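User: Can you recover a sequence for this backbone? Please restate the input before giving your answer.

Assistant: Of course. Working from this structure:
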């Protein structure tokens, strides 16, 4: 089987991406990050999803001590019912670049040629590292920055709406009840942060 690295957060988009890669016949190796985020709940969900899809996984612990994000610093409140456009305070500086760099190293080490990420650029919070131009440039970099040749980042959900992502997930058998999207780590989702609102948009009938 072809090997692939899947960035798995435990949220609905990364879950659909994992199931998509497995359906395509990839031997998936999930990379789960413990990067000092606001809560660890999403890590538990990610581990369970990897187990359900018979995927190997690694939890990589890193720290971003400069914080500068509501997801890293509890002194910064997670915005609720955000109506404005622009980049919110939940943006973690260069997070996808950091994650993809680790995934690239992992891919080279095990001979994988594909890195899957559940990024979306339609129904999303406006993060700059989720835009199509970003992935185009990153793939250009991969062709010059690695010993191995042919490694490529794949973002199969990039142009889909949340509703389309949910529809695809249902066809693939994704157990959305075993995913976690909320930026808060409470017993129940807050229902007001960007992640909760986008999730609800996708799940509404």
């Amino acid at each position: 089987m072809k090997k692939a690295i899947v960035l798995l957060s435990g949220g609905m988009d990364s879950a659909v991406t994992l199931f998509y890669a497995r359906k395509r016949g990839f031997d998936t190796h999930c990379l789960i990050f413990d990067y000092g985020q606001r809560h660890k709940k999403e890590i538990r969900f990610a581990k369970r999803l990897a187990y359900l899809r018979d995927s190997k996984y690694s939890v990589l612990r890193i720290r971003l001590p400069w914080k500068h994000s509501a997801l890293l610093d509890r002194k910064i409140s997670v915005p609720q019912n955000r109506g404005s456009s622009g980049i919110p305070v939940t943006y973690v500086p260069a997070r996808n670049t950091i994650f993809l760099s680790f995934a690239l190293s992992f891919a080279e080490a095990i001979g994988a040629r594909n890195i899957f990420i559940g990024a979306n650029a339609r129904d999303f919070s406006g993060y700059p590292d989720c835009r199509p131009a970003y992935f185009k440039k990153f793939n250009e970099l991969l062709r010059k920055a690695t010993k191995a040749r042919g490694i490529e980042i794949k973002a199969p959900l990039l142009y889909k709406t949340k509703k389309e992502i949910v529809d695809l997930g249902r066809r693939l058998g994704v157990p959305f009840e075993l995913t976690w999207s909320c930026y808060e780590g409470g017993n129940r989702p807050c229902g007001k942060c960007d992640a909760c609102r986008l999730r609800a948009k996708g799940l509404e009938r």
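That completes the design. Residues 2-203 form a domain with the Rossmann fold fold (CATH 3.40.50.620).
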